[in-house]
Amino acid sequence: MPLLLDGALRSAELEARFDGALLVSLRHRGDELLAGLPRRGHATRGVPLLHPWANRLAAPEYRAAGRAVVVPDGTPRDDRGLPIHGVVRDDWEVSADGATHRATLREGAHPAFPFPHAVEVRTTLHGPALTITTTMVATGEDAVPVAFGFHPYLRIPGLPRERWLVELPAMDHLALDRDQIPAGAARRVPSRTGLLRAHAFDDGFAGVAPGATFAVQGGDRRIEVSFDAGFPCAQVFAPPEHDLVCFEPMVAPANALRSGDRLPLLAPGDTYTARFAVAVR
Length: 281
What we know:
The chain has one helix at 256-259, and strands at 9-10, 14-19, 22-28, 31-32, 49-50, 61-64, 67-70, 93-97, 100-105, 117-126, 129-138, 144-145, 149-150, 153-154, 165-168, 171-176, 182-189, 192-195, 201-206, 212-218, 221-229, 233-238, 245-250, 265-266, 271-280. It has 281 residues and is an all-beta fold.
């Protein structure tokens, strides 16, 4: 299972291609499984890392690990002007070895997240499964909050979303306000399966068990996203006007840097590792 000369990873079933640190293509028997939104901006294609926070903050200020931070202008914002999906970094070190693609960010302090840390995103391909392992290390003398996530844009090629079957595991549904910020108590919901049809998802969840599997299925193809370790939260996103669905692994809920809700803190020198996989059956 060697690394291709052109920088792609290939197994008998899948081929993964990267643009620097970003996984931009995942093909199964020649068909593209990744989608994107038809707009320009951060986190709108492929499988982007959302770092140092996933999804929205309720305001451009937060206090975490004893520090007050103002998110500067120039960071990605949503239509209401709220910071979304972290910051865009162009100083990743990218390498490949055998069947592994690595992207490493060293001493990653930033005005929007002034906590010295390092991050490695390691992507491996084996048979029908692509596994992404993210390791974050607190490299300075202060604690570091952990709130990253991923946004895999998935599609069933050749089949309209109305005919996609979606499976969700049992987890805690978070009440969200109009800005998609968690507000109020969570409600446990059982696992469920149903046709996507014209249904819209933009829902936040917590209480995702290690190994829980989300799936979308259509025709003779089933795509599974398993939250193997370190991702107890999720966002499910499926805008009705686009043929895509996202099962977003998250370390903490949206707005955790402000709310502190379920927000892990790394002591100096400590490490946080999270892993999820995309498999095609």
